[in-house]
# Entry
Amino acid sequence: MAFYEQHIHDAPKTFLSKYIFSYDHKVIGKQFLWYGILFLGIGGMMALMIRWTLAFPGQPFPVIGNFLFPSTGGVVPPDTYAMLFTMHGTIMIFYAITPILIGAFGNYLIPLMIGARDMAFPLLNMLSFHIAVASGVLLLAGLFTPLGAAAGGWTSYPTLSTLIGSPGVGQTLWTLAIFVLGVSSTMGAINYITTIITLRAPGMGYFDMPLSVWGLGLTAILNAIFLPVLGAGCLLLVFDRVFGTAFFLAGAAATSGTGDPILFQHVFWIFGHPEVYILILPAWGIVSDLLSFFARKPAFGAKATALSMTTITILSTIVYGHHMYTTQMSPLLTQSFMTLTMTISIPSAIFFANWLGTIWKGSIRFHSPMLFSLGVVFVFGLGGLTGLYLATVTTDLYLHDTYFVVGHFHYTMAASVLLGGFAAIYFWMPKMFGTMMNEFWAKVHFWITMLGLNGIFMGMMVVGYAGMHRRLYNPFVYEFMERMIPINTFVTWSAITMGLSQIIFVINFVHAVFFKKEKASANPWEVGTLEWTIPSPSPHYNFKEIPVVKCGPHEYGNPNLTGDRDFQYQTEELV
Amino acid sequence: MNTVMSNTTLTKERVGRQITSSIAMTVILVTFSMLFASLLLGFTVFRLTSDVWPPMGFERVDLFLPTISTILIAISSFTFWKYEKLFLAVNKERKLWLGFTMALGFSFMVMQAMLWSDLHSKGIYVQDGIFPSIIFSFTWTHAAHVVVAWFLLFYLVPTLKEGISVEKLENRVFNIGKFWHFLGVVWLIMYITIFLF
Ligand code: HEM
Ligand SMILES: [Cu+2]
# Structure
């Protein structure tokens, strides 16, 4: 029951109020989408430079190398390499994946899927985007400082990130940028949580919400609780760097009180582990919905899926120690964190089995969003299973900080979330922009991306298992690594292929948004959730009449359907 | 409540907006609590791992100024509460109590500034080790919030006008009030942990 009435406002007329300072959740969602895609491009280019260096050490980066690194004739210099992986990780996590999944789809989907006219606090929503832009500027500004941008890893552990490890302004800007982005995301989270609680259409109970909204809502809760923890860490780090406090200074212990570098790791991972679920939960929700939509079957055990996601959300707050097994934690603690981490497998297995249950014996339509969703099932399965090796203390002591870890976390959060994001873009394109993307090229994009991803990340896990350490400029100076040049070259070629295939996506996307004449119908995928009951693209007030919800989001092939379709709109009553 | 709300009725719409606003404010206070809780976690770690406290031969901070600050901020919470009551009753005296709150908030800030300069005059600076780091950084962070909250009090000036609609302004008053009380509680916790213990 909506707690109060949202009135229909007049459509904004000027360019500024329509596209820049818009209060409309749909426009803000699209702003976040463009923002995320832009940063995805930047972060992707950085990944290619890292990979190039690992496959062809000492050779100039093609085409733009000479322009970027004139002093070395186009070769990525060692300190720049550290900067590249740091900025790549940071950009991908905070400035690409977060804006696309949470900023864009969170904003776009939550009001539409629960039958509201907008977020509960539109002004806050607008500010959230503009603060995110300010943060992006702060981050990129680091690239133009004399010593370059941050280079202490996306985890920015002291002492790499204190003045001892990073004397330049870049690290300070990085820390401020993350802090500011945290403020922006927290503002978003406040909006999402309040909107979901108070603005659901009449008749929509929590279990009538699409699972996408569940995922986004749980993410918002984690964001609201844990971003401030990272904020506190960033604040103290800035104090250390700017005002000379001693929180994370190890070397200062002898002369003036005891600082503690490991403290930052605790603070970082108290936030950091929930953060990986912050990234994946929206994708899980979206995929759970899409699998049902395209298998033309009810989501198997939808309630159990929602509850396992909730359980995982809760458990995710108490397992962070598995990132710190090698910091001389007491065995009692490592064993406890290991056990807690393993416990997460139970709800994960439940909802993963539910995914398989959903597609089992479905009459699957292999449209592009479905292909990407099935891709998520595959890569997340792999990523999740490899996590068990890292959760186990004994195996992690060997695997820690190798490329196995890099492969694992890319499978879980890079590959899964990226594929989930693409699925969402292809799927909601007609509602967002009023046109469909070209299906043929979407499929080409899928297959190249899917093969590329697996080439890259499987390769990473193999070399990691063989002992290749992460964050090394040139691992091949070690003798045992020399024989791993060919497989690293293979990984790099996979990355280049995958990178190039994204051009297909960009062209397809830009064409559909700006040039395509042919309009999409109101409900091209034949889906029953609320956003498909209104025209495409959705009008600025969303719903002329606030809908009344009478059934769940996944009513397919139900013998009690009322119409002559194989699905039911949520506004229709089952017999 | 009935007498307090007498000038307007409690419609479903109005209650809905009150609940919505208080849900959002709860989330906001949770986020700020986590921020300060993380700082206190840091303090706890340093405190527990150090044999003597304060470490490195520092003396405890003289409790005189922090105690006055505590008293000031406690009274300011009371005056705000009084103002809120009078606002709901559309009583003319609300002006006075909001004024008291602003004055008390300002004197709290003056006390903090005096605390910092007192420490400086004793030759204790923020970069002198973990103990001063904690004292200065935590009080700075809290003070920054108080400054923001103090300016937010001016956002309540429109509630002092004649013939206001309580319904339109009430959530603003409730929310700023909650934030103000919250900062008082945070200060009390900081007073007990980093100054007393
Ligand atoms: C699909 C194309 C991608 C490729 C080829 C790629 C490649 C790489 C490489 C080579 C590294 C350096 C590993 C090291 O030396 O330790 C790295 C690090 C990293 N990547 Fe990616 N990546 C891709 C996408 C992503 C995405 C989408 C995300 C976001 C979730 C992501 C998150 C990270 C993180 C967090 C790091 C760690 C950075 C650090 O060590 O501080 N990557 N990636
Ligand atoms: Cu973790």
Notes: The two ends of chain A are 23 Å apart (CA to CA).
